Amino acid sequence: MNLSQGELAGAVGVSRQTINAIERGRYNPSLELAFELACHFDCTIENIFIPEIE
Fold first, then answer.
1. In whole numbers, what is the pLDDT of the chain averaged over residues?
2. SS (H, E, C) 8-44
3. Which residues are within 8 A (CB) of 12 and not within 5 positions of it... i.e. 6 or more apart?
4. Rounded distance, CA 3 to CA 50, Å?
5. Whole-model pTM?
6. Residues 7, 22: contact at Cβ < 8 Å?
7. Where's the HTH cro/C1-type domain (predicted)?
8. 10 Å Cβ neighbour count for 12?
9. What are the tens digits of pLDDT across the range 10-36?
10. Residue 47, CB half-sphere, CA atoms under 13 Å: how many?
């Protein structure tokens, strides 16, 4: 899927900067936003947000 940060932000109701921060791992989205993102991409939250195991 070819989608800009701005387009995704508009689709889920947040700023482009928020999407950028999530992608960079500098912001943990709320559960509500995580559900919005999963719904947008038709997948589970786990498919998007995989915890890093050290």
1. 94
2. HHHHHCCCHHHHHHHHCCCCCCCHHHHHHHHHHCCCC
3. 33, 36, 37, 40
4. 21
5. 0.86
6. no
7. 2-48
8. 19
9. 999 999 999 999 999 999 999 999 999
10. 9
